[in-house]
Design a protein that fits this description.
By secondary structure, the chain is of the alpha/beta class. A hairpin with a 7-residue loop joins strand 6 and strand 7. Helix 6 crosses helix 7. The chain is globular.
Length: 250
């Protein structure tokens, strides 16, 4: 294990990311071009059509070049396991960023149709480049928008075939303050099937306390939740939580 994982705060790209958080919340990008550079790096170094190698190349870029806001390899393994348990026909991700999470879902469920919602069009372009290089563009779709925009993005997803009882997996990894409201908007549409799995990243850091409290309140009623103790992406110093919740209704 290298020093960059043991001492992440000594990395300039980590410091730059922390300083850029106010702008990131508005634009979806750190502001130093690392997102576009990720796609450039993948196209230059990853084997075309090899999903495993594309994911490993993104991890390499995040560890060795510039820190990324991906779910990462450690927590990604938890996501992979949840995807396999859900065995989704249709999966939805909230928060595309560079396309890493959707790519992990597509790999773990090779027969699934994956949709990802991203508010920053520039990130959507980066993700599509990476998905094309990995060879999954035929079954991974990015919808630019936000769930909390008054229904426009939900309507766009409905136009892609989202319907009551038709969603098997939901991965939430975007604006932490929107975790609960966006989940509730999806529940209001009735899209989750009984037994569907909802995975939420970064529940401890940066933190989604309202979402966590809701899942605790609904334990054994609407959801059955397991809290996975893990670490913030690409380092071993800061603890994090990934919540995996099975939907009991529908």
């Amino acid at each position: 294990m290298g020093w960059k994982q043991r001492l992440p705060f000594l990395r300039w790209s980590m410091v730059r990311m922390a300083l850029a958080m106010p702008g990131f919340l508005k634009t979806g990008q750190i502001g130093d071009g690392r997102e576009r550079a990720t796609a450039d790096y993948v196209e230059a170094h990853a084997r075309r059509g090899d999903v495993d190698h594309v994911l490993a190349t993104i991890d390499e870029f995040a560890r060795e070049k510039s820190m990324l806001m991906n779910v990462g390899d450690e927590k990604g393994a938890l996501l992979d396991a949840a995807v396999r348990r859900a065995n989704p026909v249709r999966a939805l991700e909230l928060g595309t960023y560079c396309g890493y999470g959707a790519l992990r879902i597509a790999r773990a469920a090779p027969s699934s149709e994956v949709f990802s919602v991203e508010f920053a069009a520039a990130n959507a372009d980066v993700a599509r480049r990476i998905w094309a290089h990995a060879g999954v563009s035929d079954r991974v779709t990015c919808v630019v928008g936000t769930i909390g925009d008054g229904g426009s993005t939900l309507d766009a997803l409905a136009g892609h075939g989202f319907a009551p009882g038709g969603l098997d997996l939901l991965f939430i990894d975007h604006d932490k303050s929107a975790y609960l409201s966006d989940l509730q908007a999806i529940l209001d549409r009735g899209w989750l099937r009984r037994g569907a799995i909802v995975v939420a990243d970064n529940v401890r850091i940066p933190g989604a306390p309202k979402y966590r409290a809701y899942m605790r309140e609904q334990q054994g009623r609407q959801f059955d939740t397991v809290e996975h103790r893990t670490h913030v992406e690409y380092q071993t110093l800061m603890p994090d939580l990934v919540l995996e919740s099975r939907y009991l209704q529908g």
